[in-house]
C-alpha cells in the first residue's frame, strides 16, 4: 500500500481527484473516494523554457492550492499517477509517494 500526496490549484481540485479515484486511488476497505485535503499556498518560479499554466518565466508566482492525500494499492499506483499527470493543469505537478507499513507484527 502507498500514500500519494499531491498539490493542485483549487480550479482543478475536483477534476484531478475524480481522475485519481477513477484510476483506483482512495480505496480503503468497503469505502472509495477517500482522501484528506487542506488549503494552502504554493510558490514557484518558472525557468526559461517552461510553459507554465500560471505565471511567466522568471517571475515568482504564488497560488492558492490544495494538498490532497490518499492511499493507493500497489497494483493501481502506476495508473493513479498517470491519471494525476493527465488531469493536472501543471506541466510538472508536485507529488510524492510513500510506502505505508500495514503489518506491525502484533
Highlighted features:
N-reg_PII/ATP_PRibTrfase_C, 2 helices, 106 residues, DUF34/NIF3_sf, four-stranded antiparallel beta sheet, 20% helix, Alpha-Beta Plaits, alpha+beta, 4 strands, NGG1p interacting factor NIF3, single chain
Tell me what you see in this structure.
With 106 residues, the protein is an alpha+beta fold. It has a domain of 72 residues: Alpha-Beta Plaits. Helix content is 20%, strand content 32%. The chain has a 4-stranded antiparallel beta sheet with strand order 2-3-1-4, covered by helices on one side. The protein is elongated and about 50 Å long. The two termini are 18 Å apart.
**What is the overall pLDDT average?**
94
CATH class of the domain at 2-40 and 67-99: Alpha Beta
Overall structural class, as computed from helix and strand content, comes to: alpha+beta
| First-to-last CA distance | 18 Å
Q: What integer value in Å does the Rg equal?
A: 15 Å
Q: Return the string of H and E elements.
A: EHEEHE
Approximately what portion of the residues adopt beta-strand conformation?
25-35%
Give the number of helices. 2
What general form does the structure show?
Answer: elongated
Low-pLDDT ranges: none
